[in-house]
């Protein structure tokens, strides 16, 4: 354990000098930051800066080119596959468009991880599924297919599925994208309520300023031009006090 | 965008306007709209050159006369932008004062809009050597992907054998129904017709020797050994293989495959394995059915055109076909089923993240399946001959 680790014992996720890319394209490099347990952490930045790519590295979908990703103090990408999978079960992901399995009903979507990884009976699974769908305000529609519900409902169902196995960390990829202001606000409220009641660490990828200021405890700002992070900190404080022009301009919608 | 009743339908026209010393004035007449035939810049350049040649004092700038201009839209804006470029090339000023105010603002916006960063000069397409290198790199990468696919497939099969594979049995039954039972009508139609065609061609030749009864041997053997399996394989490639690629490809686009991965559910077991199983189980069964329909198609022609009785035809068929022939057909069918499922799933898993990529994946799945079915047919024929199954 290094000195830095002893200083911050309550980190849920830690990145050390992480570099990410696809093929010949470098997306981000020199990423080093920590996400504390129980906080709502925002990964922000302009379009195309690689926010979702960072999420892919944190959720086991894209191996970093360099550096380490520590999840509950285990180095995610240095583990053999057989030990990485159980670790990733502590992570739930709500994808941008929900990414619900379209050939299954909402009930079946939430039930699948439970069927795969728990010893619950069918009736018990049914009870958990109803409870999770009720948590996100979707009671009574579990029999519908993803194609039959609205975009906002699909995202909520995505949250219910992400929470199926009671993960320690929940990721949200662009929760407010493509939603009307009210639905976006309701989803933000849901994130706040879930954190308050479950204490789950939330990592939210977004460029929506209203969301960022409403729910963010802490944030990292990724820059598309320099391919690295410019700063970390509380979003409201960054808006008021950051000295970095790019960060200020972003958080103040271009007004200086 | 002033509309004048007198010039409401006048086509756009370019003319030399009022003459004043040192200024070429272009008259913009009529409706300069996108739905009209707009004068080209070449015509404008010719007009400017003519004015220059005829002028006593060398002109310094180009101006506009819009007194007869009726309606205008983007057509005029792009035309004026072109004129400005023409003027710059000829060291002439371009005075747009007479133009409508709205047009001025639009031109200004188009000029000041930040252009997207471009690295270096525009791409003129790779050279031959670059092409060759890129193709080779693609080939290496593609081969790698195929190896990974079959490696993961082998792991999935191992999990299946020890009963640990993660797939939903309800999904397997659904796939069996879609790939098997739902394919019966098209398989019936194609194999019956191919049986008829074989029978008809056979009868035309054999009847010359009074040997119409041997149509039964020809149709029976051809169908059971090869045609039944081949027809089924190709029908399934177009029907089921394409559906697999489109389904899995769309799941890639919607991040549904990513969602499986984050839950630690291998797509290879959850998506590919049941599809492979469904086709490996159903293709031989469909082939037996296709064999039967093919023989009936031949019998239809043999009895109507060839004048053989149905009983004689069927007895002759029964005598001609041995178990070894049926086994050849069934082995081929199993291989073709595996090829169709593997190509569909492979192309689906390789699919990019756009609607166009799903289309390409689907096309590619069908082409890959058919190519490999034909290759497999040739290889299997040699193998069957070598091990004495075809005797």
Keyword list:
heterodimer; A: 256 residues; alpha/beta; Rossmann fold; 6-stranded mixed beta sheet; 4-stranded antiparallel beta sheet; 10 helices; B: 391 residues; Transcription Regulator spoIIAA; 2 domains; 5-stranded mixed beta sheet; elongated
Report on the structure:
- The complex is a heterodimer of chains A (256) and B (391).
- Chain A is α/β, with parallel strands linked by helices and 256 residues long.
- Chain A is built from ten helices and ten strands.
- Helix content of chain A is 38%, strand content 25%.
- The longest helix of chain A has 18 residues.
- Chain A is globular, with a radius of gyration of 18 Å.
- In chain A, 41% of the residues are buried.
- With 391 residues, chain B is α/β, with parallel strands linked by helices.
- In chain B, strands 1, 2, 3, 4 and 5 form a five-stranded mixed sheet that branches.
- In chain B, α1 links the parallel β2 and β3.
- The longest helix of chain B has 39 residues.
- Chains A and B meet through α3, β6 and α4 of A and α7 and α8 of B.
Short description:
The complex is a heterodimer of chains A (256) and B (391). By secondary structure, chain A is an alpha/beta fold.
Give Rg of chain A in angstroms.
18 Å
What would CATH call the class of the domain at 38-55 and 91-251 in chain A?
Answer: Alpha Beta
- Helix content percent band of chain B: 55-70%
Main beta sheet of chain B: strand number and arrangement?
5 strands, mixed
**CATH architecture heading of the domain at 38-55 and 91-251 in chain A:** 3-Layer(aba) Sandwich
Please tell me what the overall shape of chain B is.
Answer: elongated
**In DSSP terms, counting alpha (H) and pi (I) runs of 4 or more, how many helices of chain A?**
10
N-end to C-end Cα span of chain B:
86 Å
């Amino acid at each position: 354990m290094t000195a830095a680790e002893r200083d911050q014992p309550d980190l849920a996720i830690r990145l050390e000098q992480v570099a990410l890319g696809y093929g010949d394209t470098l997306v981000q490099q020199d990423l080093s930051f920590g996400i504390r347990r129980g906080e709502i952490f925002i990964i922000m930045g302009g379009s195309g800066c690689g926010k979702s790519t960072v999420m892919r590295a944190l959720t086991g979908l894209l191996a970093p080119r360099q550096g380490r990703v520590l999840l509950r103090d285990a180095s995610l990408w240095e583990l053999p596959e057989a030990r990485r999978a159980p670790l990733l079960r502590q992570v739930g992901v709500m994808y941008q468009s929900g990414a619900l399995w379209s050939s299954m009903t909402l009930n079946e979507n939430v039930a699948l991880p439970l069927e795969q990884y728990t010893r619950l009976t069918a009736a018990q699974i049914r009870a958990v599924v109803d409870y999770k769908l009720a948590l996100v305000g979707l009671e009574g529609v579990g029999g519908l297919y993803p194609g039959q519900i609205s975009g906002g409902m699909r995202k909520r169902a995505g949250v219910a599925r992400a929470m199926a196995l009671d993960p320690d960390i929940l990721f949200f990829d662009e929760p407010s994208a493509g939603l009307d202001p009210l639905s976006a606000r309701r989803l933000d409220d849901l994130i706040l309520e879930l954190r308050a009641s479950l204490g789950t660490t939330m990592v939210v990828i977004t460029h929506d300023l209203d969301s960022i200021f409403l729910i963010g405890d802490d944030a990292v700002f990724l820059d598309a031009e320099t391919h690295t992070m410019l700063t970390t900190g509380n979003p409201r404080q960054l808006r008021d006090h950051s000295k970095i022009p790019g960060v200020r301009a972003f958080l103040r919608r271009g007004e200086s | 965008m002033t509309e004048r009743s007198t010039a409401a339908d006048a086509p756009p026209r370019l003319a030399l306007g009022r003459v004043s010393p040192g200024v070429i004035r272009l008259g913009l007449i009529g409706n300069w709209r996108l739905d009209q035939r707009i004068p080209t810049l070449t015509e404008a350049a010719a007009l400017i050159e003519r004015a220059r040649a005829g002028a006593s004092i060398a002109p310094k700038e180009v101006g506009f006369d819009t007194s007869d201009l009726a309606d205008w839209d983007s057509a005029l804006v792009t035309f004026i932008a072109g004129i400005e470029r023409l003027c710059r090339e000829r060291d002439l000023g371009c005075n747009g004062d007479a133009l409508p105010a709205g047009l001025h603002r639009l031109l200004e916006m188009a000029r000041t809009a930040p252009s997207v960063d471009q690295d270096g000069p525009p791409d003129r397409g790779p050279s031959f050597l670059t092409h060759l290198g890129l193709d080779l790199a693609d080939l290496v990468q593609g081969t790698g992907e195929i190896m990974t696919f079959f490696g993961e497939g082998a792991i999935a099969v191992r999990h299946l054998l020890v009963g640990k594979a993660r797939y939903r049995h309800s999904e397997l039954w659904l796939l069996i129904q879609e790939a098997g039972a739902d394919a019966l009508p098209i398989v019936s139609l194609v194999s019956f017709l191919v049986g008829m065609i074989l029978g008809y061609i056979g009868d035309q030749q054999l009847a010359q020797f009074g040997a119409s009864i041997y149509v039964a041997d020809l149709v029976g053997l051809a169908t059971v050994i090869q045609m039944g399996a081949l027809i089924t394989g190709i029908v399934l490639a177009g029907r089921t293989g394409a559906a697999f690629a489109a389904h899995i490809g769309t799941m890639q686009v919607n991040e549904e495959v990513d969602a499986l991965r984050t839950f630690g559910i291998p797509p290879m077991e959850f998506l590919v394995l049941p599809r492979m199983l469904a086709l490996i189980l159903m293709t031989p069964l469909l082939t037996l059915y296709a064999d039967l329909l093919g023989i009936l198609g031949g019998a239809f022609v043999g009895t109507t055109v060839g004048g053989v009785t149905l009983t004689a035809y069927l007895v002759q068929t029964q005598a001609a076909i041995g178990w070894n022939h049926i086994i050849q057909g069934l082995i081929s069918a199993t291989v073709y089923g595996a090829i169709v499922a593997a190509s569909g799933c492979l192309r689906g898993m390789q699919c990019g993240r756009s609607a166009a990529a799903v289309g390409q994946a689907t096309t590619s799945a069908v082409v890959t399946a058919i190519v490999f079915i034909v290759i497999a047919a040739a290889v299997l024929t040699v193998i069957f001959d070598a091990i004495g199954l075809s005797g």
